[in-house]
Amino acid sequence: MSSRERILGRVRRALADVPPDDTPYEQVVRRDYLREHGERTVEQTVELLAENLADYRAVVHRCTEAELPSLVARLLADRKAGSVLVPSGLEAGWLAQADVSRVADRTESTPDDLDRVDSVVTACAVAIAETGTIVLDGGPDQGRRRISLVPDHHICVVRVPQQVVASVPQALERLAPARPLTWISGPSATSDIELDRVEGVHGPRTLEVLLVN
Amino acid sequence: MRVALFLTCVNDTLYPDTGRAVVKLLTRLGVEVDFPMAQTCCGQAHYNTGYRHEAEPLARHFSDVFGEYEAIVTPSGSCGAMIRELYPRMGERARAEGRGDTLAAVLAPVVPKTYELTEFLVDVLGVTDVGACYPHKVTYHPTCHGLRGLGLGDRPRRLLQAVEGLELVELPGAEECCGFGGTFALKNADVSAAMGADKVRNAESTGAEVLCAADNSCLMHIGGTMTRLAVGMRPVHIAEILASTEEETAV
Amino acid sequence: MSRTFVGMPVFPPPTHPAFPEAARDAVHNHTLRSNLRHATHTIRAKRARAVAELSDWDRLREAGRLIKDHTLRHLDRYLVQLEESVTAAGGTVHWAVDAAEANRIVAELVKATGESEVVKVKSMATQEIGLNEALLEEGIRAYETDLAELIVQLGNDRPSHILVPAIHRNRGEIRDIFRTEMGAWGRPAPDGLTDTPAELAEAARLHLREKFLRAKVGISGANFMVAETGTLVVVESEGNGRMCLTLPETLISVVGIEKTVPTWQDLEVFLQTLPRSSTAERMNPYTSMWTGTTDEDGPRAFHLVLLDNGRTDALADQVGRQALRCIRCSACLNVCPVYERAGGHAYGSVYPGPIGAILSPQLRGTASEIDASLPYASSLCGACYEVCPVAIDIPEVLVHLRERVVEGGVAVRQGNKVVLKPAKGHAAERAAMRAARWAFSHPGALRTGQRLASRTRRLHPRTLPGPGRAWSATRDLPAAPAEPFRDWWQRTRGGKDGAK
């Protein structure tokens, strides 16, 4: 007998007390919890996103579409970034004013190659106000998962209000499970020393989120 | 209203003052109290130590003795929780063991009419000011089974706040267990004693003269720790505070 | 002598003292007590605030309970569905009955890549099966990359907490471990390393960076597996998880079968309750979700090892199976007054605290001294149940397992129905319980005993001999009253005669 059959057999014997007409999933799980917490206008939801991102030490900037290229250029210059990783589908205009060398997101790049790049600029799939979270789904303007991980500085552009949802349930509705997803809430952090939170471990230690109208 | 006092075996044997206080308090509030002489023990210690089957005859006996009363009042959060929470579970377990519904049916009548003392005062009699006088500085320790089992909430505090002359001070870490836990106090004596010592130190830090709780088992542990650590405080059951009146304090 | 793990290792192998003895040293270790007190009290207050932010917490908790219970009640169906989904998405599914089989599968998969080192995401399941030790015997070195796991690994120590395995260490001790041990494992600690948490985190970053960048094989567990989509979820903070899940060419995830949830939508419950319960955050810094493999993004090969290792035995117990709802948040450890004073090591298992006290004796059985003592490692205060985000009634299961210890009875071990004998060492207690039951069934006998106690009260010693010493070593005994209540009641007709 294979281990698969053995385990499934054990499970079935263990559940001998469960009747064949046990209440089906759709009826058993009451989803009477809230779809979002509190009532907010669209602008208030964006405000909450900004607040919660900042609360977990992301640096938040707000600008218009027209101001975006100069803001991105300034942030990269402030970091003295010499190179920036660019997802293949990133809007070309975003980096138009930046004076840095652009590194394409390519299959052939080794982790060491990525480690030599100073910054990365990506878009996102959705942002969650209540938790201060941005979610990347590997779309063309976000690139492979590793490019937003290895460089120490991540600039993430969120289009507001259309990419912002209030809550976790609303975010899951918008996301496709088959895509590789990365949920990011602030820069990397740890609570492993005396259960006290410290920012900055393996992921980007600086996360800048640009909320673009 | 005819009410049976379920004093509990611990109070009957070791803390008769608490029993007398309950009788005095309820009588003062116009309640006719009876003490069924056949009462013994709810079976909690057996049940919680793993001897559920030994606890069953005690639960049946309890139901026999108290089944006919309108209400059953007990000055113990943990014994109250035993009857209200765990008697139904004993019935369920007997059913799961293929022994039918008999035990559940025998125990069912006593479950909804059993009240912990402060619950009975606040919810059934509808009083918070029981006309007591107790001119002392008191801190209150909510015992675990009263707090988390029965959900006594702020009832004991409301009763204490209405006592004339009583100064109620907040106990740091109030909701943390004192470390009694029945046979836990013997089986894990080191951890139990460490919890007890921390509870007593917290109580001492309030500057109160009295640590009050609604369960003498916990107070036995806390009080025994207090005298051993030579802390100048005394443990007092809430019934004894609520039963105190001006005439006595004047003496 | 060679030793084979057939289940979860009881460490330090082969035996571990019973809980009360194991806890004794911890109780009297002031540094440990102060480290644990500081850490657990910090997180307790934060958790309470994070939970209070959600007005529907009770409903989320109830939904979590229902989802998990339903899944467990139909686990066979959901496991088959999960296997189909993962396979359809490009993954390979393996089934492991016990620790030995899981370790063998992983070792063979690593060897097939030609690699001799792996990077690991913090995972309770791989701790449970002793994977690192098993891989080492096969010549494969496993690097722990979670900060706390790194501290434990470098210190040749044992984990003492589910979320923060090095919770028993303070910053000064961590600095010392980094200074003396990092060099032997790779890049040494920076010169002049201080004990500020930020510097310690930086030292870990530098030390592990080279390992992440060259790793070809990553090993993880998972917090959730979605049956309908085949998606696995890892919830973390530091980014070490992302490194291990995305940089290597091969990813092997070892996951307990109970981590399954039916649908994608179910995640909306647990992604709200888990972070707030564990690190007391609205959301943890990083959550990775992957479904099989993705072309040109992340590992090219993905293996899922589904682990039983005692879980089906627990599933067979109608009271005990609720322990399998656990999402490993650690809230019960952080709130437990016993854990706070005894420390995690006393539980003799990778699962310490209240959840460990009900999980270990179910996964491993109650035959060993430690496992038979774990159900008693609680005052039944109920704080664990109150904070549990999936409403596991831990006190109920503890009492149920106490019953199994003292009464024995039918249980399932390694898939077979067995009749357990009552545990040794409870004979005196059993006799006492029976005697008490007899006395309590005969009010006359009870009364005789009470009167005897009252009349001999002047003779009562202040301290007790034998088992009673456990009480009187630290607590005074209450003085017996002049008469029991029932005598007063009868004498005065309930005080109506006016007598005092």
From TrEMBL, chain A:
Pfam families, A to Z: LUD_dom
Designated name of the protein: Lactate utilization protein B/C
Chain ranges of the LUD domain: 47-212
From TrEMBL, chain B:
Example of a GO MF term: oxidoreductase activity
Domain Cysteine-rich intervals: 3-84, 138-222
InterPro entries: Cys_rich_dom
Residue stretches spanning the membrane: none
One annotated Gene Ontology cellular component of this protein: cytosol
Domain of life assignment: Bacteria
PANTHER family assigned to the protein according to its UniProt record, in alphabetical order: LACTATE UTILIZATION PROTEIN A, UNCHARACTERIZED PROTEIN YKGE
Protein name: Fe-S oxidoreductase
The organism of origin for this protein: Streptomyces cellostaticus
TrEMBL record, chain C:
Domain Lactate utilization protein B C-terminal: residue ranges: 401-491
Domain of life: Bacteria
Organism name: Streptomyces cellostaticus
Record key words, sorted: 4Fe-4S, Electron transport, Iron, Iron-sulfur, Metal-binding, Repeat, Transport
Listed Gene3D superfamilies: Alpha-helical ferredoxin, NagB/RpiA/CoA transferase-like
Gene Ontology MF terms in the entry: 4 iron, 4 sulfur cluster binding; metal ion binding
Protein name: (4Fe-4S)-binding protein
Domain 4Fe-4S ferredoxin-type: 323-392
KW 4Fe-4S (keyword) present: yes
Domain spans labelled LUD: 81-306
NCBIfam families, alphabetized: LutB/LldF family L-lactate oxidation iron-sulfur protein
One protein family per Pfam: Fer4_8
A GO biological-process term: lactate metabolic process
Region (Disordered): 449-476
